[in-house]
Automatic annotation (TrEMBL):
SUPFAM superfamilies from the UniProt entry: Galactose-binding domain-like (SSF49785), Glycoside hydrolase/deacetylase (SSF88713), Type I dockerin domain (SSF63446)
Alphabetical GO biological process terms: polysaccharide catabolic process
Stated name of the protein: Uncharacterized protein
Residue ranges occupied by any NodB homology domain in the UniProt entry: 157-335
Entry-linked CDD domains: CBM6_xylanase-like, CE4_CtAXE_like, Dockerin_I
Domain of life according to the entry: Bacteria
Domain Dockerin: 67-135
MF-aspect GO terms: carbohydrate binding; hydrolase activity, acting on carbon-nitrogen (but not peptide) bonds; hydrolase activity, hydrolyzing O-glycosyl compounds
Residue ranges of domain CBM6 in the record: 1-55
């Protein structure tokens, strides 16, 4: 309190979560304090912090025997969805406090109090990571959340669509139109020099549609023989542009031309990905030829490498009209790269010096 070297009121050890954007809820106790004070968070190493809260430990009332409460259904509409998550978050942040039965239903872990642990568990439930709550006496019957979520079955057939060399307001929009049409999510590996005010609306559309953004370097030249300083600058400048216009930090890197070297691996703190290609950088390939290359080569866990931006004619959007329905009919589900790694149980770990063609 008071300054970065002031009175220490709490200490929290934060081990690695496996990735810069892989968040975990952590908590610690603080010493009794009173009055209005300036608070400083002091870190001894690199930390990516999402938010922090003070929790005075709200106690949930114990329901009477005749009550039948669906834990997690905070607003009492007999559904568990993002509305309940929003209510709980606002309660914990002291924006709108809840009480009575709503407070009892908010204690999803059944420990007699409502705090950030319950919020984390409700979030995991909505993502499909867990299917029930410790604090529930009955199996929840949730309603679907607004945006489609990937399957939680680790044995399901999963595939990740990725697109290189954008963004472009016209060409990327054609790909986004197809993804919207079929309600699938993808990952866009963007080129830093194209991420600017002129493409801001397209970047916003990518993010708002639930797609992921990765790093494809600042330019188009191969990086295998670049100096360490030039490599780090290319990655950092691209990350900064993505952070500015998309509000996210990339987890994945696709090297230009898929060229790698020990120097490149040692100076890029992101997970390298390649993928199954369709020669869609060659203008003479047709939509059907591009689609056939993907459909004939795909397997469970495949990363598909396509391009949203290439010189015209560029029928990759038309190829998606073949690829997506065909693979869906074969039992595949389309997920982002982060979802593919998570659902396959593979850590997003930049210290693993390899380039993933598929997961695992």
């Amino acid at each position: 309190m008071g300054s970065a070297s002031g009175t220490l009121i709490g200490t929290l050890t934060v081990p690695s979560t496996g990735g810069w954007n892989d968040y975990e809820e952590k908590s610690c106790s603080i010493t009794n304090t009173t009055g209005l004070n300036d608070l400083y968070l002091v870190f001894s190493g690199p930390v990516n912090i999402d938010y922090f809260i003070f929790d005075s430990t709200s106690v949930a009332p114990t329901p009477t025997p005749q009550q039948s409460l669906l834990v997690g259904d905070i607003n009492g509409d007999e559904k568990i969805n993002s509305t309940d998550y929003s209510i709980l978050k606002r309660h914990i942040l002291n924006i709108n406090r809840i009480s009575g039965d709503a407070l009892a239903r908010a204690d999803v872990n059944g420990d007699g109090k409502v705090d950030s642990t319950d919020l984390m568990m409700l979030h995991r439930y909505l993502l499909g990571v867990i299917t029930s709550f410790p604090g529930n006496n009955q199996q929840p019957s949730p309603s679907p959340i607004p945006s489609p979520q990937p399957t939680i079955n680790p044995n399901a057939k999963l595939v990740a669509l990725t697109f290189d060399d954008g963004p472009d307001n016209v060409l990327t929009a054609r790909v986004l139109d197809r993804l919207d049409k079929y309600n699938v999510k993808a990952t866009f590996m963007v080129v830093g020099q194209r991420v600017n005010d002129s493409t801001a609306a397209t970047i916003k559309r990518i993010v708002n549609s639930g797609h992921e953004i990765g790093n494809h370097s600042w330019g188009y030249s191969g990086m295998a023989n670049m100096s360490p300083a030039d490599i780090r600058k290319s990655i950092a400048d691209t990350n900064a542009a993505i952070q500015k216009y998309a509000g996210t930090t990339p987890k994945f890197f696709r090297p230009p031309n898929l060229e790698t070297s020990p120097t490149l691996f040692n100076n890029v703190d992101l997970v390298f990905v390649s993928g199954l290609t369709a020669n869609d950088w060659i203008q003479s390939t047709t939509a059907q030829q591009r689609a056939s290359a993907i459909i004939n080569g795909v397997k469970d866990g495949t990363i598909i490498l396509l391009h949203d931006v290439q010189p015209e004619p560029h029928p990759t959007p038309e190829a998606l009209d073949i690829i997506i329905p065909t693979l869906k009919s074969q039992g595949y589900e389309f997920v982002t790269l982060s979802e593919l790694f998570r659902l396959k149980g593979v850590p997003i770990d930049p210290s693993v010096k390899k380039m993933y063609y598929s997961v695992p």
